[in-house]
Amino acid sequence: MALCVHRIVPSAGPEGQAASLLPGVRPIIRVMPAPEQSSDRPDVYTHGHHASVVGQHARRTAERDAAFLLPRLRPGMRLLDVGCGPGSITIGLARAVAPGETVGTDVVPEVVEEARARAAAEGVTNLRFAAESIYGLSYPDASFDVAYAHQVLQHLARPVDALREMARVLRPGGLVAVRDADYATMVAWPKSDAIDRWLEVYHAVATRNWADADAGRRLPSWVRAAGFADIEVTGTVQIMTDPASTSNWGESWADRTLESSFGAQAMEYGIATRAEMEAVAAGWRAWAADPEAFFMYTQVEVIGLRRG
Ligand SMILES: C[S@@+](CC[C@H](N)C(=O)[O-])C[C@H]1O[C@@H](n2cnc3c(N)ncnc32)[C@H](O)[C@@H]1O
Questions:
Q1: Residue located nearest, by CA, to atom 14 of ligand 1
Q2: How far is the CA of 267 from the centre of ligand 1 (A)?
Q3: Ligand 1 centroid vs 51 CA: distance in angstroms?
Q4: CA distances, 226 to each of 37, 164, 229, 291 (Å)
Q5: Which of 106, 139, 151, 301 maximizes ligand 1 atoms within 8 Å of its Cβ, making it the mutation to test the pocket?
Q6: Which is it for strands 102-106 and 127-131: parallel, antiparallel or unpaired?
Q7: 3, 153, 178, 271: most buried, per Cβ within 10 A?
Q8: Which residues line ligand 1 at a C-beta cut-off of 6 Å?
């Protein structure tokens, strides 16, 4: 996907979200999650692993999606990529630390299998994958130099517990690196009531899953709460403006609205009706076909040091 990427110094936005409504559609009252560390909240992965989701994730690269981390990597480092999904970023990270070993983990065995196949097809040999949860990694204490989580903490009910587990497997002086979008920063042009409604529904589904779609702004405090030091915060403004990118993004979200776990959950939770979701998907497709389509949002990136 061709993107314009601008490095910025981030500023924290307000918690909460202004409602914007389609005429006649009931408002969603967004309740901010209460303290998120309770272990009686099961994770429900909002996106699921429909081909429309995993295909989008597989377009990612370390060069673009871990650009803030790459300058800190050295050959010979041992790196862990948690919630690695289809592994396209993990492969680039493995190349950056070769001959050091990289391990990619994800809680879903099928996507781990896909990552394994992708790495084999690309001939990357210093990389292996395992199906396991971020909350209970199977590696000894202090066994990695770097631990990365890309677009993962936004989906978790207990992000600080996950970061503490990443800290456990890092050696003293090792680096944690996390990157998450902040959905409240997402804006589309031309304006679209359907896309506004999509954003409301997405927030409501994530909140119902004990997750925070606006995780980007919370990353620094989560990383601090997990005990990391020397925290560095950067941001990337992601802009899609060429027709290839906007068409892919819009068509992908149209498919995801109707066919992925996100759409199914929205209807199952009573957040949106099938008719509304069809209207949202149609709105995404209309936007995707518009030669003036433009989409922009902020990604927040944090690096922290494991204390000695
Ligand atoms: C948005 S995808 C990101 C995938 C990859 N990091 C990337 O950016 O392309 C989030 C991934 O986190 C995984 N995940 C969700 N909950 C998890 C957990 N508790 N432990 C490990 N992985 C988890 C999901 O299965 C999914 O593959």
A1: 83
A2: 23
A3: 15
A4: 11, 5, 9, 45
A5: 106
A6: parallel
A7: 178
A8: 43, 45, 47, 57, 60, 82-85, 89, 106-108, 111, 133-135, 150-152, 155
Q: How far apart are CA 45 and CA 155, in angstroms?
A: 6
User: Which residues, including other chains, have CB under 8 Å from residue 145's CB and lie 6 or more apart?
Assistant: 77, 78, 79, 97, 100, 170, 171, 174, 175
Tallying the residues shown for the chain, one arrives at 308
Max distance between CA atoms of the chain, in angstroms, equals 59
Domains observed in the chain: 4-9+44-305 (3.40.50.150)
What CA–CA distance (Å, rounded) separates 193 from 162? Answer: 36
Residue by residue, pLDDT tens for the chain (308 residues) are 333 333 332 222 222 222 333 333 333 333 333 334 455 667 777 776 777 667 778 889 999 999 999 999 999 999 999 999 999 999 999 999 999 999 999 999 999 999 999 999 999 999 999 999 999 999 999 999 999 999 999 999 999 999 999 999 999 999 999 999 999 999 999 999 999 999 999 999 999 999 999 999 999 999 999 999 999 999 999 999 999 999 999 999 999 999 888 999 999 999 999 999 999 999 999 999 999 999 999 999 999 999 98
How far is the centre of ligand 1, averaged over its atoms, from the C-alpha of 150 (Å)?
Answer: 8
Q: From ligand 1's centre to the CA of 283, what distance in Å?
A: 28
Q: Report how far ligand 1's centroid is from the alpha carbon of 93 (Å).
A: 16
Model's pTM, two decimal places? 0.87
Distance from the alpha carbon of residue 49 to the mean position of ligand 1, in angstroms? 10
Mutate to test the pocket of ligand 1, among 43, 155, 166 (most ligand atoms within 8 A of CB): 155
